Amino acid sequence: GQNIDQPTEMTATEGAIVQINCTYQTSGFNGLFWYQQHAGEAPTFLSYNVLDGLEEKGRFSSFLSRSKGYSYLLLKELQMKDSASYLCAVVNQAGTALIFGKGTTLSVSS
Amino acid sequence: DGGITQSPKYLFRKEGQNVTLSCEQNLNHDAMYWYRQDPGQGLRLIYYSHIVNDFQKGDIAEGYSVSREKKESFPLTVTSAQKNPTAFYLCASRDKGQPQHFGDGTRLSIL
After folding, report:
1. A59 touches chain B (CB under 8 A)
2. Of A34, A72, A89, A94, which alpha carbon lies 20 to 30 A from A55's?
3. CB A43 to CB B102 under 8 A?
4. Tell me, what's the pLDDT at A1?
5. Rounded distance, CA B13 to CA B111, Å?
6. Using 50, 70 and 90 to split pLDDT, how confident is the model at A50?
7. A96: helix, coil or strand?
8. Residue B2: predicted pLDDT
9. A71: buried, middle or exposed (CB in 10 Å: 19+, 13-18, 0-12)?
10. In this structure, are residues B7 and B106 in contact, taking their beta carbons and an 8 Å threshold?
11. Which chain B residues have a beta carbon less than 8 Å from that of A43?
């Protein structure tokens, strides 16, 4: 089977840096995605990792270690609009669909 | 503009009734997906389709049905057999090798 774990909630202040961790157990590995979801809205794609290492995209970076079954999403220079849920998802063993974690709700305060 | 359209945004159903949620995309994507999201939960896969006239059950298909008669359309029917249908339903599509893109969702409530 497949299991994905992320913290339920995190808080941070404007301008700070926050790291959201995701650990996964899968029978095979075909890639890991991070999505952002504001309350009541659709998830939007942030990043995709399939090889080990860091992928940087503006204020957001995502890291993957396949040997450790571990990823993190790093958000720099936090803004109030970054308050949202962040969903970690891995491609299923058949490579046909995504398996999502429960998401981490990030609250950014001034 | 290209995108994924889900309608309606809010839907109410009486107990014992079937209801169909619409999902249309004009992105020419082959693959389409339906997910259910409950409060504090991640997205759970209901059904998916990678090609017209073919679809597969996801993790929580019981009480749901789908059809894929056209590439652009992947409607989801919530049947009376679904005992707890109140949820936020999300449709997604993707091109090969690309991430999934989501519609704005339909929030279904039972009267």
Report:
1. no
2. A94
3. yes
4. 64
5. 6
6. very high
7. coil
8. 66
9. buried
10. yes
11. 43, 90, 102
Side chain identity, residue A64? L
Write down the H helix ranges in chain B: none
- The verdict on A39 touching B (C-beta cutoff 8 Å) is no
Helix (H, G, I), strand (E, B) or coil at A28: coil
A6 within 8 A of A22, measured Cβ to Cβ: yes
Compute the distance between CA of residue B35 and CA of residue B47 in angstroms, rounded to an integer.
7
User: Within an 8 Å CB–CB cutoff, is residue B30 touching chain A?
Assistant: no
What sections of chain A are H helices per DSSP?
Answer: none
Nearest CB among B42, B99, B103 relative to A42 is that of B103
What mean pLDDT value characterizes chain A? 94
Q: How far is B16 from chain A (nearest CA, A)?
A: 26
* Alpha helices in B12-87, H assignment, sequence order: none
Give first-to-last CA distance, chain B, whole Å: 35
Average pLDDT over residues B6-31: 93
Q: How far apart are CA B60 and CA B70, in angstroms?
A: 23
